[in-house]
Design goal:
alpha+beta, 5-stranded antiparallel sheet, 4 helices, elongated
């Protein structure tokens, strides 16, 4: 192909071909993510999967796609797989030491897996995390569950509209009271309708 083009374009081909490859990789990743999001949504609707599972699947798939795009772009720039593997194992060793040093973060991640599998509460449930049986605790509607925190939207006590981020390991250290219907809660937790 280079022989059929004018001489002045030969220098530009050196930059244009990798740029085109990167654009095509990004386009393919975008299309793949779009198709996967629709597929996950349809599977969630068809099998009535819990929303947290669909959100988690989308997040994991997005991470895999972005990581793959990063590897492909690096290979287009000429980075060899052996160099990537060496860098990855070095970072993994440092990361392992850091994870052992950050045990509370690991505890929250493990507790997230327990919350998603044992399902003591779900998205949109109204819960209260009690310090002990006598004192009122942190109360609100579950609006998000991520790897570290569960986010509650406060619905009473003069704090309407504010959010609480509770570390996930707290749900296994404290008593949790749950209501699926806010009208059943004593004192009537007021939801957002």
């Amino acid at each position: 192909m280079k022989d059929h083009l004018p001489a002045w374009t030969h220098d530009w081909l050196h930059y244009g071909v990798p740029a085109l490859q990167i654009l095509l990789t990004l386009l393919a990743a975008w299309l793949l993510r779009l198709v996967a999001r629709r597929l996950i949504r349809r599977l969630g609707e068809h099998y009535t999967l819990p929303p947290e599972m669909a959100i988690g699947a989308r997040r994991v798939f997005s991470f895999v796609v972005y990581f793959t795009v990063l590897l492909v772009v690096l290979s287009i720039f000429g980075v060899k797989a052996s160099v990537l593997w060496t860098a990855f194992t070095g970072f993994a060793a440092v990361g392992a030491v850091a994870f052992f040093a950050a045990w509370s973060v690991l505890s929250n991640i493990f507790c997230t897996l327990l919350i998603l599998t044992t399902r003591p509460f779900r998205l949109h449930d109204y819960i209260e995390v009690l310090e002990n049986g006598e004192k009122p605790g942190l109360k609100g509607r579950v609006i998000d569950i991520n790897l570290i925190y569960t986010t509650l939207q406060e619905t009473d006590g003069g704090h309407e509209g504010t959010v609480l981020q509770i570390p996930n390991n707290m749900f296994f250290q404290r008593t949790v009271r749950r209501w699926r219907d806010p009208s059943q809660a004593p004192g009537g937790i007021q939801g957002d309708g």
